[in-house]
């Protein structure tokens, strides 16, 4: 049909073409950037965030030194348990007291509890009392060490109440104080186990398996620290897995040589539990150090910082050995 109106089909097509360029709702701002231009700053910000994550390098000599230190701790605990006789446990207690002092030095400097001098003094007293009770008590039991730990923990908290700045940190740092005091007392548990049935064999299997796991893991990190557990933690997954496998294998091998109730299967189970405990503590220490560095805290003395992992691992392995000796074997 002919259209007399000036609003013809050609004009409608022109309006339709121009309408696709208009926003669906509202009004367009002349200064509004296009979509491509608005996406570029977001991508640049994401790239900057990725570049800020610094990958901490793995120092080979340091990893080998930590592996050697873990090996020395393992050998010391094994030889001490082997040479401990009913009338000659005092030399073993002296060696254990030296390890307790190393643990105290490393963990006090790393965790920085309130009133560090008072906390360290109380912990030394706890170590002496725990070793003395482990050697001279009429009955070899764990409860005297538990009461010693609780008493030392309460005394350390009381020593942190005198200064105002220490009292302000008390609610946040009591866990660190408990870890220090309990770890010092835990090293006296192997002395108690050497006076109990099957205790010496349990200490040997746990200490050997944990030592093999830590030595292999740290030595592997020096050679092949891949894949990385985290960018800020200089540890590799390959070393942890390989250490767990060889540590469990060493426990099974020792179980085949020891007497009843040990068997290769029980040795493997005991070794596996000791390996898992040692790896968890060692990795937790590494992540704690990385967290403190990211938070901007002042780094601790480097010797104490790197001894903290193996020392904490063997402290908890000692407690695990007592539990395995009584509840599993």
Automatic annotation (TrEMBL):
Bias (Basic and acidic residues): 27-39
Highest rank taxon of the organism: Bacteria
Coiled-coil ranges per UniProt: none
Residue ranges of the TM segments: 62-84, 90-110, 141-162, 174-193, 199-217, 237-262, 268-288, 309-328
Name of this chain's protein: Uncharacterized protein
Region described as Disordered: 1-50
Keyword set includes Transmembrane helix: yes
Organism, as annotated: Paractinoplanes ovalisporus
Biased composition (Acidic residues): 40-50
Alphabetic keyword roster: Membrane, Transmembrane, Transmembrane helix
